Amino acid sequence: MAEALVALGGNVGDVPATLDRAIAEFCDGVAVTLVARASNYRTPPWGVEDQPPFVNTAIRVETLLAPHDLLARANAVEREFGRDRANERRWGPRKIDIDLLAYDDVALDDERLTLPHPRLFERGFVLAPLAEIAPDRIIGGRTVRDGLALLDTTGIERL
């Protein structure tokens, strides 16, 4: 089994309920097993600032799925909740966003997937919840805790 780290967030509708349901859909207990779930965090918008705050969390899973298959599962769960990546504003409002952050120590960069996530260490809204469940996990040569310590986390609030 492989270990994967996954970020989830949204800012449209009842986001905490959506996150709970999306995690339950993503983690079937067979191909993807939930190992740890971070608290929810209220976070300021990133990229496009004229929108409501987000609620973000992170999960650590064990999976039998290969990286691209795990991504396909994440995208399928997003679609179940009404996300249409092709017709939405980049970094804009959304009901759900599911991003693969890391998959074991796999380094991958193709047209569909880059691992580890290329902007992981730029985003406090990802690292704050991730540091709760995997602070000592080394990704790209640094720990999640050390990466978070380098960022401005103003406005990020654990719920």
CATH level-1 class:
Alpha Beta
In CATH terms, the superfamily is 7,8-Dihydro-6-hydroxymethylpterin-pyrophosphokinase HPPK
How many domains make up the 3D coordinates?
1
Cα end-to-end separation: 31 Å
Q: What's the CATH topology name?
A: Alpha-Beta Plaits
Strand content: 25-35%
Number of strands: 10
Class based on secondary structure composition and strand pairing: alpha+beta
Which percent range fits the helix content?
25-40%
CATH architecture: 2-Layer Sandwich
Low-confidence regions: none
Biggest sheet features? 6 strands, antiparallel
> What is the number of helices?
4
Q: What is the element string, with H for helices and E for strands?
A: EHEEEHEEEHEEHE
Dominant shape = globular
Mean pLDDT: 94
Specify Rg, calculated over alpha carbons. Answer: 14 Å
Structure description:
It is a single chain. This protein has 159 residues and is α+β, with helices and mostly antiparallel strands. It has helices at residues 15-26, 67-80, 124-133, 144-149, and strands at residues 2-10, 32-37, 41-43, 54-63, 97-103, 108-109, 114-115, 138-139, 142-143, 157-158. It has four helices and ten strands; from the N terminus they run E-H-E-E-E-H-E-E-E-H-E-E-H-E. The protein is 26% helix and 28% strand. The strands form three sheets. Strands 1, 2, 3, 4, 5 and 10 form a six-stranded antiparallel sheet that branches. A two-stranded antiparallel sheet has the order 6-7. It has a two-stranded antiparallel ribbon with strand order 8-9. The protein is globular. The model has no long low-confidence stretch (mean pLDDT 94). It starts with a strand and ends with a strand. The protein has one domain: Alpha-Beta Plaits (2-Layer Sandwich), CATH 3.30.70.560. The longest helix has 14 residues, at 67-80.
